[in-house]
């Protein structure tokens, strides 16, 4: 029951056991403390719950992941030299501070922070098998910002491979401005770089994550 429903409470577990006349037919009462001891004995502990969208491991998403892997394998099988470039954006707050500290027992652990919440910045970075190609931090990204980032990235990869006919594939997620018409048009005018979108809920397939 606990493995099937990680959020189940002791009283719910108690009610299910008493009400189950098939598996627990001879159990007419059981205390919550007894259940807690049994769970602990079997190494089942109270933990923070992590929310996972229902769609994350649906058959549709699994199929899209399979198609993505097939596409990558097909690219690897081609004779043309190519390299994957992984891009992602991540936001940070400038007043981010540690949440845990130390002090004498009975006294609060205190850290001085500004009275107002600080500003936010977004870091956009691109990596390949050779390491970090480009990184840039600014305010939240949008279509014009990502186009400027792609222009700089294109200049870097073409300058590094003037004597090689290397093909590059940009791999990133499905955020809306990644799919904008202007971004699609940019890739059409820069044939040395193609784009491959990650399946939904599949950030673990992006090496930069």
UniProtKB/TrEMBL annotation:
Q: Name one Pfam family in it.
A: DDE_3
Q: Which residues form the Tc1-like transposase DDE domain?
A: 84-209
- At the top level of its lineage, which domain of life is listed? Eukaryota
> Could you tell me which species this protein originates from?
Coregonus suidteri
Instruction: Please give the Gene Ontology molecular function terms for this protein.
Output: nucleic acid binding
What is the protein's name according to its record? Tc1-like transposase DDE domain-containing protein
């Amino acid at each position: 029951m606990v493995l099937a429903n990680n959020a189940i409470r002791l009283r719910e577990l108690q009610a299910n056991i008493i009400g189950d006349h098939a598996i627990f037919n001879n159990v007419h009462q059981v205390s919550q403390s007894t259940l807690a001891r049994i769970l602990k004995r079997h190494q089942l502990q109270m933990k923070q719950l992590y929310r996972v969208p229902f769609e994350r491991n649906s058959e549709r998403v699994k199929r899209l992941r399979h198609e993505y892997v097939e596409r990558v394998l097909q690219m690897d099988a081609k004779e043309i030299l190519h390299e994957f470039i992984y891009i992602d954006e991540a936001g940070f707050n400038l007043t981010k501070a540690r949440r845990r500290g130390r002090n004498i027992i009975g006294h609060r652990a205190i850290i001085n922070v500004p009275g107002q919440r600080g500003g936010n910045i977004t870091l956009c970075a691109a990596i390949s098998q050779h390491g970090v190609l480009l990184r840039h931090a600014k305010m939240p990204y949008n279509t014009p910002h990502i186009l400027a980032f792609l222009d700089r990235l294109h200049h870097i990869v073409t300058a590094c491979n003037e004597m090689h006919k290397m093909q590059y594939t940009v791999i990133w997620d499905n955020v809306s401005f990644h799919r904008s018409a202007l971004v699609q048009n940019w890739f059409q005018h820069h044939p040395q770089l193609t784009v491959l979108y990650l399946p939904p809920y599949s950030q673990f397939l992006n090496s930069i994550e």
